[in-house]
Each structure stands twice: as C-alpha cells, then as structure tokens.
Specification:
- The protein has helices at residues 246-265, 269-279; strands spanning 3-6, 13-14, 25-27, 32-37, 69-75, 83-93, 96-104, 109-121, 126-129, 134-136, 140-145, 163-165, 176-180, 188-194, 211-221, 230-232, 236-243, 281-286, 292-299.
- The chain is mainly beta.
- The protein folds into two domains: 3-93 and 137-223, Acetamidase/Formamidase-like domains (Jelly Rolls); 235-299, Acetamidase/Formamidase-like domains (Endonuclease I-creI), CATH 3.10.28.20.
C-alpha cells in the first residue's frame, strides 16, 4: 500500500465542502495519507491578544470562509451507497493552541471574555496555559468528512451524515470512522485540530491547534452500507446523531445503535432497546455547531 504526505498550501487548502472541488490527490483502497493542518481559523502563529491582528494564511479565496481543511482526497473505487472506512493513526499536535470563553448571557457571562493561550508538549501530551493551568492532551480532528451530493458550496460548520464538523473527542489515534459515501470518489477532507476537548465543547472552542501530523488510512467497503456515521474506538462502538434539536439528535444516535446491536447480536428491535438501556451510554458530542451532536457508545464486552 502506498503512503502520501499533504502539506497545508494554497492548492491543498479550502474552506467548504463541495462535490465540485477537484481532488488534490487520488489514492487506492488501503493507502495512507499523512496530513499537516492549520488550525481551523487559518492562523499562521499563536493568536495575539487582539485576535484579528494575528497573521493568517494568504492568499485566501472567496470560498475559504469555513474551517481550514486539507483535501479533498479521492479514493479509487468509491461510489455512492458504499462506506468509507477511515482509520486514524498517529496524531501529533503543534506547539500552540487557544481557547475562548465568554458572551453567554444565559450562563451569567455578559461582558466578560476569557482567552487562554496554550503551550502544547506532544512528548508529554500536556498543555499549559498562561495562567499555569495544566491539562492532559488527547488530540483529534474536529472535521473529517465528505460533501453531500448537492450542488454548490456547503458550510464546514454543521456536521452531516457524510461527515464534517463532528467535534467528537472519541475519535483519537487508533479509532476508525465509518462514513456513508454520497459522491463518486468520496472527496474526503480533514482539519480543525483539537488538542483537548470536553464532551459538548461548551464554550464553542476546544484547545484549537494546528496539527503537525495526522495519519489516515482509507478503505472502501462496498458490502457494508450504512445510513449514518459510526466509529470504533478503544472503548467500543459509537453511533452518531445529528440534528438542530438535541432530542432528535439523541434519537438518531440511538436508532443507529439499535441497528448495530441487531446486526451484531441478532436481536429483535424491542430486545435491543431494552439491552441498550442497560449497557449503552448516550453522550452529548457538541452543542455549538448549529446542528447538535449526540453519540451512543456500546463498550466492548458489555453485551455477550
């Protein structure tokens, strides 16, 4: 199997999802691509106190309003209705990151704003902000996905069934993401590195950071059609729910989990629901992307 390296430069960067984008690279089933990515905001160095004065990647195109994404990558043999398997290998964050908090009147924060600048150590996997707070790092990519089969440009902000801005902290190194393919070639893009994040991403930002290297291996699954995203992590199987309404997102994640439990354990639907109530955890992925996310987790060995 071949391997490739993608650096963040004008020809490899974009800020939208679109089936009309030309692929920067075409790979075969089983190939690996190592990406270096900018942070989501296109910054070229740690943000200054006045965020707008920080140097950004230039030149920018009219379609670069969204997250700074690398891609798209076309995968040979992909057709609509198939599933793309994306195995996440090594992820190494850059040396800096930032987090914002504030302007949440319903939380009692009216005028106050907090800006945390983080120094990141990829060897010890720790981050330290300017106030001396230290956190453990668990880096992942906030955006991984493909465009829908619809014309025009589509925002990188909301997640979709074909992937996108999941902001799911479960998708760390060693995990595998499964996405429904909507367009020929898939046209996969990645970006929005997060060095650490809690479930919910409640301020609207994680530790936003550039990524020195994220290694992704692509497989095409013609005989495993799925209707919504799934993942395998070190903990177990994960299914995703996406909707502007949090309750509807929960229902979608649970429907996906019931489908998976029926497939794997030969259960009836009612039995699957009863057992899910015993062994499945429902977690809020994020509440800040317009389309909210919930994911269901079935730990390995929880049901025998």
């Amino acid at each position: 199997m071949a391997s490739y390296d993608v650096q963040p430069e004008r020809r490899t960067l974009h800020g939208k999802f679109s089936r009309e984008l030309d692929p920067i690279l075409t790979v075969a089933d089983g190939d690996t691509v190592r990406f270096r990515t900018l942070d989501a905001s296109w910054l070229m160095e740690p943000p200054h106190e006045e965020f707008g004065e920080t140097p950004m990647f230039e030149p920018r195109n009219d379609g670069d309003a969204g997250h700074a994404l690398c891609g798209p990558i076309a995968i040979e043999g992909t057709e609509p209705g198939m599933t793309l398997e994306v195995h996440i290998g090594d992820i190494r964050p850059g040396t800096w990151g930032f987090t914002f908090g504030g302007h949440r009147e319903h939380l009692g924060i009216v005028d106050e704003q907090a800006y945390h600048r983080w120094t990141l150590d990829a060897t010890t996997m720790t981050g330290r902000n300017q106030h001396g707070h230290t956190v453990a790092l668990s880096p992942f990519m906030g955006v991984m996905g493909m465009p829908p089969d619809e014309p025009g440009a589509h925002s990188t902000g909301p997640p979709r069934v074909t992937g996108g801005n999941f902001d799911c902290k479960e998708l760390v190194a060693g995990s595998t993401l499964y996405l429904p393919i909507a367009v020929k070639g898939g046209l996969f893009s990645v970006g929005d590195g997060h060095a650490a994040q809690g479930d919910g991403e409640v301020s609207g930002t994680a530790i936003e950071c550039p990524i020195d290297c994220v290694e992704l291996t692509f497989r095409v699954l013609a005989d495993m059609p799925i209707q919504a995203p799934r993942a395998r992590t070190a903990e177990g199987w994960v299914t995703f729910g996406l909707d502007e309404d949090l309750d509807a997102a929960l229902d979608m994640a649970l429907v996906g989990m019931l489908d998976l439990m029926q497939e794997q354990h030969g259960l009836g639907r009612a039995d699957a629901l009863a057992l899910a109530s015993v062994v499945v955890d429902m977690r809020v992925t994020q509440v800040v992307n317009g389309v909210r996310g919930v994911h269901a987790v079935l730990p390995y060995g929880a049901l025998k």
